[in-house]
Each structure stands twice: as structure tokens, then as C-alpha cells.
Amino acid sequence: MNLTVNSKNRILIAYQYLSFKGGIEEVIINQAKELKKLGYPVRILTSTYSKTDLDRIEDNIEIVRIPSINIAYKIFGIPFAVPILTPHNVMKIYNEIANSDVINIHGHPYLASFVYVYIAKRLKKHIVLTQHNTEIFSNSIFVNLIYKLFDKTLGKYNLDNSTDVIAGSKATKKYIQKITNNKNIKVIYNGVDNERFYTKYSKSFLRKKLNIPINKFVCLTIRRITFKNGIDNLSKAAELSKNSHVLFLIGGTGPDLKSTKKYIQKRGFKNVKLVGYISDNNLPLYYSAADVFILPSRKGEGFPMAILEAMSAGLPVIATKSGGHTEIIKNGKTGFQVETQNPKQINLYIDTLFNNKELQNRISKNCRDVMIRKFTWEKNIDSLLKVINKV
């Protein structure tokens, strides 16, 4: 990198939750680590989810938490922290922002983001707001109305009052341009640790270790189990599949896990295996043990980390046209795009790859090459610093 570190740029990264493992959390942690390596003073401001969430230091980065009410998440699975704004907590937030030069807030429609923007604006701080997803979609009309309301109120205020806005994809940029008049919007793609997701072990070794059948064509999905992420769409693909060699392997947890289990058990699927939560250590192993990665989402994807991780491991990707990942998935080159809620089309491309090993290998190599050339944390941070260091 050619950028000179400005020691005055103390960076505060703020996000409503850091209690769960997901794509946004992965981005925040990796960016914080990379900035710290470059000598930037970095702190993270977030909310509590449970009593075990305490202020602490992780990877030499101090994480400060504000007590919050989390009813929406616990009952409806909607990630929406409501900070408890006692005088003590307000002063805690105020001091964190006051002692920073740049505040990088992740997520536009949250109440926590509103509090951060409101205080930072009055302290005349450089506010960089990073938006990851496109429009969220739920199976509840009421919840969808709430999302739209947040977009037009909290979301609009936060975007309008940010110094700079970062969009995780071109699709995300189009989405937020419908909400805000802010012209300072820059697209910065996420990075991935390409060394971490490359393993030297053979598929047969990994499958024995992970208790995955060696003789199956494994179609892996690692997602939060929710309506938005279309796991039921994948279940229907499994139901319609005529290929006895195919195994649908689903990793992850979420509010719809119980109903997904019930659906699979009721129909007696033998070609679906739910593995639940996958630890960070095992994540690269599951990618490398699979033959193809499937993203069946309905809507709301910005630039999913799971896609980058899968491609970094050399997995061809079959993904619905549900967000910014379509900007890197090219049919026949890095995978295949399918229409949302079209399980027959998912099976079509599964069979295409199953029946053409040469094509599978070529796409696998293309995926790995694209990740190494274009999607690294170094490139991501280089772009981020150009915004952070902007005078």
C-alpha cells in the first residue's frame, strides 16, 4: 500500500451486534484486524445481546458494548437492538465517538446507527456509513412494512447525514440511492482470506473427518436459516432432485431451523443433511469437502461473504439472482445464476456440473483465480482507507 498512516485517524467501528457469526460480523472483525496491523488505533462499539456480552479485548482490539433491549431478535429473529439510553450509557457512547476521528458505522436502518450518527454529527466527526445488504424481505407483510418504515426514517436520516457512504456492491448502491440524496457513495467489495480457505487435504480425507459420504456429489449451503435466505427453496430442490448421487448439505442456525427440520423429516428426505452450526475452524474444511455451493436466497443479499469463501475454496456457485453477488458470478465461468424460487433450475445446473467434470474443474480454477486477483482484504482496506483518510 502507498498510503501513509495518519496517527490522528483514530477509527471507531460501530455496529449494533457483534454477538453472532455472520457476514457483516466477519467483515468488521477482518477490517479491524487489518487496520490494526497498519498501525491505526481501532476500537469497536456495539450492543449487548446477553448478560455474557461484556467489554473486552479480542485480537488486540477493544470491544465496547452498550446494554440493549433485544426483543425483536429473540421473538421475531429480526436483528434490531434498542440501546438503553441511560445517562451513563449515552455518556459512554459520547466518549467513544469524541475520542475518535472517524466513525465507521455498519448498517443504515438501525436505531443504534441513528444514535451513533446523531452524536457524531454534533461532534463534527467524519462519518463513514457502510451498507451491506439490499432490501430485506420477510414472509410477514407487517415486518416488510416495518423494514420500509425504517428505511424512510432512520435509514434516510443516517444516510443523509453521513460524510461518506460505502456500498458493498453495485446492487446495494442502487438500493440506497432510492433512499438518500447523498452523492458520496462508493462501491467497495468485501475481501476474503484466500490462504485460510485453501486446504491441502483431499476431499476423501475431509469427508471422513466430517462424516460426509465419500461417494456423493455434495451441494453445500451455509446460511442463517431464515425465510429471506430461501432454505425452503433448497428443500424443494432436494424434493424434486432425481439424481441419487446428490447430497444437499445445509450448515447454519436461525429462527426457521425448527420448521426446516420438520419439513425435511415429514417428507423423509434422504438426500438432505442438516449439520447445524459450523465453527470457524471447520468452515474451510466444509467448503473444501463439497463439490458445489448453492445460495438459494429470495432477496436482500448485498455481497455475501459465503459466496467469497466458497469461491476462494474453488467451489463453483449456483446462486439466485437476489443481490450483488451476480456481479461476480458469470454463467459457465464462475458458476450459474438462477431465478429466485426456481428449484428446477437449481437441479438443472447441479446435474450439469455433475455430468461434466471438466467444466466443474474449469469453473473451480476460475473461482480461485478471481478471488486471488480481485477479492483480498488488502484491496478492501486499501479502498476503505482512501475514504477514511479523505480530507
What does it look like?
This protein is of the alpha/beta class. It has 2 domains: 194 residues, Glycogen Phosphorylase B (Rossmann fold, 3-Layer(aba) Sandwich); 172 residues, Glycogen Phosphorylase B (Rossmann fold, 3-Layer(aba) Sandwich), CATH 3.40.50.2000. It is 41% helix and 19% strand. The protein contains 14 helices and 16 strands. The strands form 3 sheets. It has an 8-stranded mixed sheet with strand order 3-4-2-1-7-8-9-10, with helices on both faces. Strands 13-12-11-14-15-16 form a 6-stranded parallel sheet, with helices on both faces. Strand 9, helix 6 and strand 10 form a beta-alpha-beta unit. Helix 8 runs parallel beside helix 9. The longest helix is centred in the middle third of the chain and has 20 residues.
Topology:
Elements: E1 11-17, H1 23-37, E2 42-47, E3 56-58, E4 61-66, E5 68-69, H2 71-76, E6 82-83, H3 87-98, E7 102-106, H4 111-122, E8 126-131, H5 141-160, E9 164-167, H6 170-177, E10 185-187, H7 203-210, E11 217-222, H8 231-240, E12 246-251, H9 257-267, E13 272-276, H10 283-289, E14 292-295, H11 305-312, E15 317-320, E16 335-338, H12 343-354, H13 357-374, H14 377-388
Parallel strand pairs: 1-2, 1-7, 2-4, 7-8, 8-9, 9-10, 11-12, 11-14, 12-13, 14-15, 15-16
Antiparallel strand pairs: 3-4, 5-6
